[in-house]
Amino acid sequence: MENYARARSVERPSVCPFPDLPPDTPEVRVRDGSKIRNLLRYALSRVEPRPRTEEGLPTGEGGGAAEEEGQQEGRGRPPCRQIVFTATGKGVAKAVTCAEIVKRRLGGIHQLTRVQFSTLDEVWDPLEPGAGLDSLTVSRNRPALWILLSRDPLDPRQPGYQPPGRYDALWREDSPQGPPTAAGLKRKKGGGGRGRGHGRSAGPSREAKGPV
Fold first, then answer.
1. What is the DSSP letter of 38?
2. Which domain holds residue 47?
3. pLDDT 10s digits, 44-67
4. H/E segment holding residue 46
């Protein structure tokens, strides 16, 4: 490929793995360059509409034009019962972050996750048009993540289902002895090491001895 240069990339549209969604279900497409602040502002405006000043999200920083347009469309609409986050490639981590924040913000959210592949077509043009080389199209499969968040119950038998749960379960102490104390969480001062002067071999006394 040293004689070619990538001209453009075209991502094929993926089919939503949730076919029974209402037609007004918002779909948030998370890209690598998207800002989490803007994505959350739009998502919360669709599932939990409220005045802009009460969202708790500053409006000073902006993302792309498409994200700002999506925020404008989300205002004034009735709240949706479901929302979908989708991402490919490097945007998968941001989609997971947005979904977890929305779940903690709203509470009682059912989640359904699907993993599939999306196709990205890359068009490569020859560096020298007169060399007799043709353009090439390379198709790449990239992992795609789809996350459905729903206020209404979902079928728990579906793969990838996560019920609403408490997020403080990781910090609970299940042992019968009760919660850990502060002494058990903090390392003792000076513990775990040798004290000063310990471990030295005993030498002759330095005291001056008188004549016998």
1. H
2. 25-166
3. 999 875 554 444 443 333 344 444
4. helix 36-47
